[in-house]
Amino acid sequence: MGKLRNQDGFTAVEGILIAVIVCLVGFVGWYVWHNHKTAPISLTSQSRSATTNTSSSTQDTSLDITEWGVSMTIPQALGKVTYSIASNGTDLNFSSDLQKTMPASCNLSQASGPWGIASYTDATVDPSQKAALTHIGNSYYQFVYPQEGCNEANALNSDYLTMFSSVKAN
Q1: What predicted TM-score, i.e. pTM, was given to this entire model?
Q2: For the stretch 113-152, what's the b/e string if a residue is b when 16 or more beta carbons lie within 10 angstroms of its beta carbon?
Q3: SS3 label, residue 139
Q4: CB 121, CB 130: distance < 8 Å
Q5: Which of these, 6, 45, 57, 152, is most buried using a 10 Å CB contact count?
Q6: What is d(CA 76, CA 13) in angstroms, rounded to the nearest whole number?
Q7: How far apart are CA 62 and CA 57, in angstroms?
Q8: Strand stretches in 46-131, DSSP E
Q9: DSSP state, 4?
Q10: Hey, what's the torsion of the CAs at 8, 12, 14, 20, to 10 degrees?
Q11: Residues 6 or more apart from 32 whose CB is under 8 A from it?
């Protein structure tokens, strides 16, 4: 028997090569889409204020952090709350009316750090710490506060922690 010539179709090598190319193009597309979706936002330092939603019977003040897609309820004791996001896009610092009235005797040094939130992604969070963090969407959030202070600072810690515990997706 002789060899047949001019057979139509693909050889196994050609079929495997086509499958590899299609898989490679699909993976590159998924990788670009996934990284674009979860890429950290690069921001310059910005400051925002709380928004007030009023109804006829109660007043509910919330702090909407639009850059991160989250919001939280502000305890009345804090008064007006503003925030600023560091240029790295992952650190947020609070400022409030109550915080501005703290006595100098509290002696909060710069080394003790501000009140705020640290944001992490799956790529940047320590896996052993995930359980201790608040997980919303593709991000993990951690409440940060000064490690030293006075009784007024402890009360402020409590009010900010109450606010942080109400964090939810917008």
Answers
A1: 0.59
A2: ebbbbbbbeeeebeeeeeeebeebeebbbebbbbeebeeb
A3: strand
A4: no
A5: 152
A6: 71
A7: 16
A8: 46-49, 51-54, 59-65, 70-73, 81-85, 91-96, 116-121
A9: P
A10: 140
A11: none
Paired with 72 in beta bridges are: 63
List helix spans (H) across the chain.
12-38, 97-100, 151-165
Residue 65: name the closest of 75, 86, 50, 87 by CA.
50
The per-residue pLDDT for 132 is 85
pLDDT in tens, 47-87: 454 444 333 334 558 889 888 889 999 888 888 888 888 88
Q: What average pLDDT does the structure give for the chain?
A: 77
Read off the amino acid at residue 156: L
Tokens at 105, concatenated: 């005797």
Question: Where exactly are the structural domains of the chain?
Answer: 11-40, 46-169
Neighbours of 107 (CB within 10 A): 12
Task: Give yes or no for a contact between 130 and 138, defined as CB atoms under 8 angstroms apart.
Answer: no
Q: Which residue has the tokens 């590159």?
A: 28
Angle at 144 between CA 81 and CA 167, to 5 degrees: 60
CA distance 20 to 105: 68
Write the DSSP assignment of 66-82 as a string of letters.
TTTTEEEEPPGGG-SEE
